[in-house]
Amino acid sequence: MKHRKLYPDNWEELAWTCKEQAGWCCEHCGVPHGTPAISQRTGEEYTIYLAAAHLDHDPWNPCPRLAALCPSCHGRYDWHDYERKRWLELEILRHQVWIQAHGYGEME
């Protein structure tokens, strides 16, 4: 697991409970945990394993909002958050450039 130190000590229990409550099916597309699938990219067979995804992207939260998601749905969900953060970074940069261009960023 990536960044394990960020997660609460009882993460395994929280993740298991999340998947149990979802009936061991992806909460977005409904695919069951353990389903064999064929990769569209490589043509290789693989097994779908559900993950407990942080809906608020806050792994440090001891009481997180979680959803059981398959790898495809989890990737799409995280991609939207990534794109939102990138857009926000760009807006901040554009604002800083505007401030500098109009002389508001200079200290007297």
Helical region count? 2
- H-E string: HEEEEH
Distance between the termini: 50 Å
Q: What portion of residues belong to β-strands?
A: 5-15%
Structural class: alpha+beta
Give a structural overview.
Helices cover 39% and strands 13% of the residues. It has 108 residues and is of the alpha+beta class. The protein has a two-stranded antiparallel ribbon. A two-stranded antiparallel ribbon has the order 3-4. The longest helix has 31 residues, at 71-101. The mean pLDDT is 87.
Structure described in brief:
The protein is an alpha+beta fold and 108 residues long. It is built from 2 helices and 4 strands; from the N terminus they run H-E-E-E-E-H. It has a two-stranded antiparallel ribbon. A two-stranded antiparallel ribbon has the order 3-4.
Short descriptors:
13% strand; two-stranded antiparallel ribbon; HNH endonuclease; 2 helices; alpha+beta; 108 residues; two-stranded antiparallel sheet
Helix/strand layout:
Layout: H1 11-21, E1 36-38, E2 45-47, E3 51-54, E4 66-69, H2 71-101
Antiparallel strand pairs: 1-2, 3-4
